[in-house]
Amino acid sequence: MSIQLKSECTTNEPKKKYDIKLEDETERKFRMLSVLSYFIVLVIIGIPIWWYTTRVYRAPLPIDKINSLELKPQQSREFGIPLSLDYDILISFVHPDPESLRIKANATVIDFNLQNFLEKISLVADFTVKSQWLYLTELGAVPRKIIDRYVLLENQLPHIITPLETKLWSHISPRPSINLVVYFPHCQTPLYIFKSSNEMSTTNAFVSPRWGGIYILNPDKQSCESGHFEADPKEIVSIFQQMLLELFKIPDTSERTLKDFVLSRIEDMLESSKRTLQSLAQLLSEISSIVISDKVANKINVALKSVRRTEELLNRNNLEEALTYAKIAFKKSEEAFAHPSLLALLYFPDDQKYAIYIPLFLPVMIPVIISLVHLRRKKGSKSKTE
């Protein structure tokens, strides 16, 4: 009996080992398939989808054509009115003592006479004329009394602009503003502007290159005694015209001078458009996280074509059409450079994207990778034992 039991045990032992071996093989295959499925879902499918959904849309741009634009060497130039296609001309009448003296200045007549002058230079830009009155506003500079006159020296004139600037609304306009100010001094203290050569200014006015000009108009003695002063609109317009000619650096209003002025503005707009396009191309090339929408790409393409067209027309001496395309190039290049969509993801570069998403993917990927390595080693050791 004992011999028969022993033989039964020996015959069942290999079968049990074989069954355990099959179970281990099935479990190993299941683990491998499970790990591979995680790997496929996370690495082969998940990472490409993540990369595609988090990538920045960038419309194609003619970067090479933009970089091939020829620029003139920059030269130091005097400050002047900023280059623009639209300007606001703000006429301000400043009256510090309305109780003692009533002043009448017909703004409608001034506007009408000023428009005749602006029409001559309106080819290069559009002008919007507005006016305002400021009361109880003093000048920032203290005049000096020389003999029987109160004098403002030339080095005091910049200090006049600062207090006036806080009272003007020109800084809220989206367009460059040209300030034309008429200041009516107190009757007791008429003001006169003296140049650095100790000569009295013939116009009693001065110009600040990027700001505008101030005209000091002293009421006459008879008006001060009667308490009523009526300013001459033609005299004011004449001073304003001189200021605008000086601000735009135009010697006179002759046909030849205005033609040279138009040519100069075309060249300025053309050069500004080229520099803006190249600066934008360099920015977009260096920062890959900036979105380039189709609108921005279209503006850049139109600006580039207009630049090329303007150069062709200038070579043919066709100033009228060249001015039209120069305006388009300048406008589109500025709109593209200042487009709000360029700043949408400017502060979310790739390194920050990795810093956010790696802590999400890495903890999940580590066990999967370790399991793959472990299964591979186990399979290799098993093949060696066999």
From TrEMBL:
Transmembrane segments: 30-52, 354-375
Database matches in Pfam families: PIG-S (PF10510)
Pathway it works in: Glycolipid biosynthesis; glycosylphosphatidylinositol-anchor biosynthesis
UniProt keyword ATP-binding present: no
UniProt-annotated location(s): Endoplasmic reticulum membrane
Protein family according to the UniProt entry: Belongs to the PIGS family.
Name the record gives this protein: GPI transamidase component PIG-S
